[in-house]
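Progress report, Aim 2. The chain analyzed during this reporting quarter is listed below.
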Amino acid sequence: MPSASDLILAREHATEQQQEERHYRRKQDKAEARDRIEDMVGPKSVGREAMLEKKQLRRENDRAFRERGDDGFELDESTIMGRGDSFRERFALVLWKTRFFC
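Predicted structure tokens for the chain:
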């Protein structure tokens, strides 16, 4: 008849085996899922090949943006340069002050 310590050791060993088996199954499931995705999409490019693909995609996007052209977004000069009146008023005020206070 096995002793109490032998029974405890056997239970611990069985628990460890179950954990290892669960870990192994999970690892296999992940690998199979990765393989299924790769079959559907194709292999992922890496290294220099991936860099060149990204560069090509960026060029295509830039070209499409350039070809799209101006969307009619137009601003008047007062919006871009600021109000012309206020600058003229400030300039006139400075001239007026320099004439009378200098």
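The helical segments are 4-41, 47-68, 77-81, 84-101. Residues 1-68 form one domain. These observations will guide the mutagenesis work planned for the next reporting period.
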